């Protein structure tokens, strides 16, 4: 049994994933995998160097993320090339980890935390997608407070992703994280009782049987 967990920046995805892990879920973290696949010795790092040159490496042979970012964010073609290197590798590693957890304890819920799940069109990997939701004005306020940034900069980051209202519409299930921590926990408890213990995950929207 698995779900894809996603949301917008500063919506509280990590909070919800932590609550699910506390209840016994296994976690596959796409951000962590993305960092692992570019470590020294990994094939993806060699492909990145072959495409972008030695300038994207630090002296110790690790990836210079700042330098690579300055290249790919300034040029769509470069960004697409980087995605073509990384996305298949990350997706394969995610599938490996999901399969390993499902073999280990077949009845355990596997939560796969993917920030850009819908943007990367990964929903077909999961039985259902759970979105962590807060209205955009709450998202903006929390992002400004969390990162200590101006409203303009926070809004630019929010606008770089699919709107949270659209993600909510696409979701098979959602948890509203705009209230108190206790209110979020109550929703997580209800989700666990109904869908994990009750084993009644809804079918993914748009999924053909």
UniProtKB/TrEMBL annotation:
Keyword list, A-Z: ATP-binding, Coenzyme A biosynthesis, Cytoplasm, Kinase, Nucleotide-binding, Transferase
Metabolic or biological pathway: Cofactor biosynthesis; coenzyme A biosynthesis; CoA from (R)-pantothenate: step 5/5
TM stretches of this protein: none
A Pfam family the protein falls into: CoaE
GO molecular-function term, one example from the UniProt record: dephospho-CoA kinase activity
Compartment(s): Cytoplasm
InterPro entries reported for this sequence: Depp_CoAkinase, P-loop_NTPase
Catalytic activity: 3'-dephospho-CoA + ATP = ADP + CoA + H(+)
Family the UniProt entry places it in: Belongs to the CoaE family.
Protein name: Dephospho-CoA kinase
Gene: coaE
């Amino acid at each position: 049994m698995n779900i894809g967990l996603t949301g917008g920046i500063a919506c509280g995805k990590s909070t919800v994933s932590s609550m699910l892990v506390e209840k016994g879920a296994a976690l596959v973290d796409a951000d962590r995998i993305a960092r692992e696949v570019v470590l020294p010795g990994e094939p993806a790092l060699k492909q990145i160097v072959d495409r972008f040159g030695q300038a994207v490496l630090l002296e110790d042979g690790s990836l210079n993320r700042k330098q690579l970012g300055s290249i790919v964010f300034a040029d769509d073609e470069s960004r697409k090339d980087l995605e073509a290197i990384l996305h298949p590798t990350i997706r394969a590693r995610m599938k490996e980890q999901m399969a390993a957890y499902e073999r280990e304890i077949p009845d355990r819920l596997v939560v796969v935390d993917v920030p850009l799940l819908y943007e990367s069109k990964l929903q077909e990997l999961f039985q259902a997608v759970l979105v962590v939701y807060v209205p955009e004005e709450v998202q903006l306020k929390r992002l400004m407070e969390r990162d200590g940034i101006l409203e303009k900069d926070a809004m630019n980051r929010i606008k770089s992703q699919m709107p949270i209202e659209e993600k909510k519409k696409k979701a098979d299930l959602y948890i509203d994280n705009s209230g108190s921590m206790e209110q979020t926990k109550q929703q997580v408890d209800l989700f666990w009782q109904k869908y994990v213990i009750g084993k009644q995950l809804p079918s993914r929207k748009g999924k053909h049987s």
